From TrEMBL:
Residues 8-277 form the Tr-type G domain. InterPro entries: EF-G-like_DII, EFG_III/V, G_TR_CS, P-loop_NTPase, PrfC, RF3_C, RF3_dom_3_sf, RF3_GTP-bd. SUPFAM superfamilies: EF-G C-terminal domain-like, P-loop containing nucleoside triphosphate hydrolases, Translation proteins. Belongs to the TRAFAC class translation factor GTPase superfamily. Classic translation factor GTPase family. PrfC subfamily. It is found in: Cytoplasm. This is Peptide chain release factor 3. Its main location: cytoplasm. Keywords: Cytoplasm, GTP-binding, Nucleotide-binding, Protein biosynthesis. Increases the formation of ribosomal termination complexes and stimulates activities of RF-1 and RF-2. It binds guanine nucleotides and has strong preference for UGA stop codons. It may interact directly with the ribosome. The stimulation of RF-1 and RF-2 is significantly reduced by GTP and GDP, but not by GMP. GTP binds at residues 85-89, 139-142.
Amino acid sequence: MSLTEEIKKRRTFAIIAHPDAGKTTLTEKLLLFGGAIQTAGAVKSNKIDTATKSDWMEIEKQRGISVATSVMGFEYKDIKINLLDTPGHQDFAEDTYRTLTAVDSVIMVIDCVKGVEIQTEKLMEVCRMRNTPVICFINKLDREGRDPYDLLDEVEEKLNIKVRPLSWPIGMGKGFKGVYNLYEKKLNLFTPSQRKLSDDRQVFENLDDPELDSLIGPNNANQLREDVDLIEGVYPEFDVNDYLEGKIAPVFFGSAVNNFGVNEMLDTFIKIAPGPKSRETDLREVKPEEKKFSGFVFKIHANMDPNHRNRIAFLRICSGTFERNKPYNHVRGPKPLRFSNVTQFMAQDKEIIDEAFPGDIVGLYDTGNLKIGDTLTEGENMVFTGIPSFSPEIFREVINKDAMKTKQLEKGLKQLMEEGVAQLFTFEMGQRKVVGTVGQLQFEVIQFRLKNEYNATVEFHPMNLYKACWISSADKKQLDEFVRSKNRYIARDKDDKLVFMAESKSWLQMVQDNYPEIEFHFTSEF
Ligand code: G4P
């Protein structure tokens, strides 16, 4: 198969959801359709249950398990689908943000009872930054949920994206009869079943057909006629380009656990979802069809076993053909790298592969050369952009409790940061080191791993900080002046970039007002 054909075949996406909305269930159903698994219950939830919520060892173990399910590849109707898993626990949200840099589109699951929840809002912000196309799946229609019009309004309002329903529910909860596919003009009747492997859709070009009344009852039929009239009147016709540009999110209704509406969405997904897209580098845009290989690392998973300090780096292929054992330019590093152990994740198995194509994700065994955001190329010295760090939310100062082990501590911190466990900021004054995270759990993870893997002992002291803002200015003199006058609050990130450590929202606002020449950024790329 030619490179162009390989590219055309691929769809790389992630499912995002607030915990409990049904991401794991939907993933499982998609894998069933793809023939990647045979039985329900085969997909391990990467959700941390309440009993183990504070037990991070357990969480790390589960994260270990989830390496296998980090990328799930399967074929469906001749399309190679790469589904990237995102961590269920919100303390690992940063992992999810980065995973979203490696996909071409997302499916967002919303619980029809709970509506749009906070984690979904945050994830959607990241999608919006990249104009990632989003398909919305409103789940659990077998439960008494909220009014579908309200739900759509809420999605538009809270997620700040226009929606266009492509299916419409007939009843809900006990009275749920099915959905009408507005795109294909087909009726899909609901029968609760977890095993069903295809939706049996009936074509209804004309909703006035009296057969509709006998199928779903006259009340439901009339309601549906009214609803469809209203929707077609209110919403503009679905334009696939608006979806591809991230301006409009098509919406499907269904019930993942009953395998209802999933097949329908998947069929539309393979028709409309984008294949591998062009990507920006600091030099130019890279097209997937380019002959020469290029890709970037978006995730690193470390081995918890201190005797095997190898890690798996996840590489998204952006252009050309990636080949095993071929030396590639490691743009940040001192020497070319070649990989003999390259895995791809098909179904739930890992397999060693010889080549991979744009859109694919491969796992590279690495002994410490790679870090998140690294670019590999077939020669060119360019770096993929759009893989930023986001300002953390919790900050703690690192206190070294064993001065004899300072070297080990430095090394350990450096490596853990390269894996993206957390972010390290070093204050200009006194070289105090501050770790920033999005969740409490990471501090326990870091403390344990520093001890266990690097023999370094640390404590974390709380710090009263609100945000880390990367700063820049067109006027270098003003920037120097700002750094001098605010020197107590100036730190450097892992790439030596200048960061302003703001203590509170109001104070940050005041400083921003007082220094209009200085730009404050909440992500490391600007
Ligand atoms: P998550 O990965 O997004 O966190 O959610 P997950 O799929 O684990 O689903 C959360 C709960 O919601 C599960 O129930 C799951 O069975 C249920 N669920 C998923 N889809 C539907 C649906 O369409 N209708 C209904 N009624 N429930 C649904 P649980 O009790 O937590 O687990 P389980 O014992 O059922 O596995």
